[in-house]
Amino acid sequence: MISVFILAIMMLSLYASFNSGFGTVAVTREELRATQIMTQKLKAIRLLTWSQLPTAPTTVSDEFVDQPQSNLTQLLGVVGGKINLGGTFLLNLSLLFPLNDDGLKAKPTPVVGFDYVF
């Protein structure tokens, strides 16, 4: 009973940490984009002469959040198996391959791993 309670607390903590991490990344991206827009506008104002300054635009019409033009998510398939090397050692052999054309165009990727079973 106590172990179930501890597991529930651990899962809740894991979810909260993921939520916090994704939120931090989103805020950081928004702040970076705002900094880019402000830097661009200040550079444009810096290049104006004193006589052009009163006619400078006072509003910003740039997009605040840049949405990517394409999907960066790639769907991968995997084929693999395990080989017993004797005793308690296992060799993992897998091959990752793309199932769609989205994201980066990766070639099939071999993955090798070792496990110790006790």
Structure description:
The mean pLDDT is 83. The protein folds into 2 domains: 1-67; 71-118, no CATH class. The protein starts with a helix and ends with a strand. The protein is built from 1 helix and 3 strands; from the N terminus they run αβββ. The protein has a 3-stranded antiparallel beta sheet with strand order 1-2-3, with no helix packed on it. The chain is α+β, with helices and mostly antiparallel strands and 118 residues long. It has one helix at 2-46; strands at residues 76-86, 89-98, 109-116.
Task: Give a concise summary.
By secondary structure, the protein is of the alpha+beta class.
- Strand coverage percent: 15-25%
Helical content band: 25-40%
**Major beta-sheet overview:** 3 strands, antiparallel
Q: Mind telling me the C-alpha Rg?
A: 26 Å
Structural class: alpha+beta
Number of domains: 2
Widest sheet, order of strands: 1-2-3
Choose one word for the global shape. Answer: elongated
Give short descriptive properties of this protein.
118 residues; 3 strands; 38% helix
Record the SSE blueprint.
Elements: H1 2-46, E1 76-86, E2 89-98, E3 109-116
Antiparallel strand pairs: 1-2, 2-3
